[in-house]
């Protein structure tokens, strides 16, 4: 049997918290499944917490304390973990991390990439190394863990409601080998199927539309005005001027109007994942199938590979 990799508690607060959680769980003779039994969470979340990749939701911390008899230890240290989640993130992103905790709804557009909290480790590593090719492995690992720790925004039951608009090039311009792209897109589909996150694809032949050159992210709150965030490779800007946010928000509404409907978009992502799984690359949607109507009618069950093309890697 392969030896399980240990958790390095010296790597940071999240790792130390996770290491203590695993030690207490195993000392109690409980599996991941048994420890989450009776909560609203799954074992995958608990596994990510033990490996220092996800935050511990407060209600889960209370559940763990009750089951393990740890006298409120994990609940008391939730705040430490929340603050430590800033590790691995750029300084200009720190305000966004705080606001994410309070957001009721998040609307997002990215013209080239899958949103950060939906990215798996290979995808994150590829993006970080593209921007920072000489990044030391320790720092790279911190960035990966930091971004994966934000997965709760799309995956937890108490996450904000999310609306994500992506350009179709996200599907047919791979930044990973086929098997890893397949896994990444399959993960995206899995999250979308939970119906806390809704997505639309904007086709290449959609014509001119708002936000053609830059990403945009809107957050709304119960007791505060909405804000917008946009960023470039090495900088970001949080916009809170009400009139400007309103103007950007109206532009986002026009962008939504250019996208495919959510079910068609989801089926296209599923089809792209299948193409990569078969070692092929998805063809451009707009280039091979002009007009959304055909995609709405398609059964995606053709045996000959459908909208995939042969490609050499």
Automatic annotation (TrEMBL):
Family matches, as CDD domains: HTH_XRE
Stored SUPFAM superfamilies: lambda repressor-like DNA-binding domains (SSF47413)
SMART domains, A to Z: HTH_XRE
Pfam family, one: DUF397
InterPro entries: Cro/C1-type_HTH, DUF397, DUF5753, Lambda_DNA-bd_dom_sf
PROSITE patterns for the chain: HTH_CROC1
Segments forming a coiled coil: none
Annotated ranges, domain HTH cro/C1-type: 21-73
Protein name: Scr1 family TA system antitoxin-like transcriptional regulator
């Amino acid at each position: 049997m392969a030896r399980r990799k240990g958790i390095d508690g010296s790597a940071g607060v999240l790792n130390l918290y996770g290491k203590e959680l695993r030690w207490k769980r195993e000392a109690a003779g409980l599996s991941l499944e048994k420890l989450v039994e009776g909560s609203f969470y799954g074992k995958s979340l608990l596994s990510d917490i033990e490996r220092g990749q996800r935050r511990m939701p407060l209600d889960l911390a209370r559940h763990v304390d009750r089951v393990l008899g740890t006298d409120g230890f994990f609940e008391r240290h939730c705040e430490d973990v929340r603050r430590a989640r800033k590790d691995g993130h750029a300084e200009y992103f720190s305000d966004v991390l705080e606001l994410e905790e309070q957001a009721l709804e998040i609307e997002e557009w990215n013209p080239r990439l899958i949103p950060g909290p939906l990215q798996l480790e290979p995808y994150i590593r590829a993006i970080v190394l593209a921007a920072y090719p000489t990044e030391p492995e320790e720092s790279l690992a911190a960035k990966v863990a930091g971004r994966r720790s934000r997965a709760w925004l799309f995956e937890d039951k108490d996450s904000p409601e999310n609306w994500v608009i992506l350009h179709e090039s996200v599907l047919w311009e791979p930044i990973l080998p086929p098997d890893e792209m397949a896994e990444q897109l399959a993960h995206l589909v899995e999250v979308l199927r939970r119906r806390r996150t809704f997505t639309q694809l904007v086709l290449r032949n959609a014509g001119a539309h708002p936000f053609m050159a830059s990403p945009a992210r809107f957050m709304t709150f119960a007791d505060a005005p909405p804000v917008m965030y946009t960023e470039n490779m090495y900088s970001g800007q949080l916009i809170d001027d009400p009139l400007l946010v309103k103007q950007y928000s109206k532009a986002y509404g026009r962008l939504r109007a250019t996208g495919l409907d959510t079910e068609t978009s989801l089926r296209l992502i599923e089809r792209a994942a299948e193409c990569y799984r078969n070692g092929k690359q998805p063809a451009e949607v707009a280039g091979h199938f002009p007009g959304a109507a055909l995609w709405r009618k398609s059964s995606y069950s053709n045996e000959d590979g459908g909208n995939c093309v042969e490609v050499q890697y």
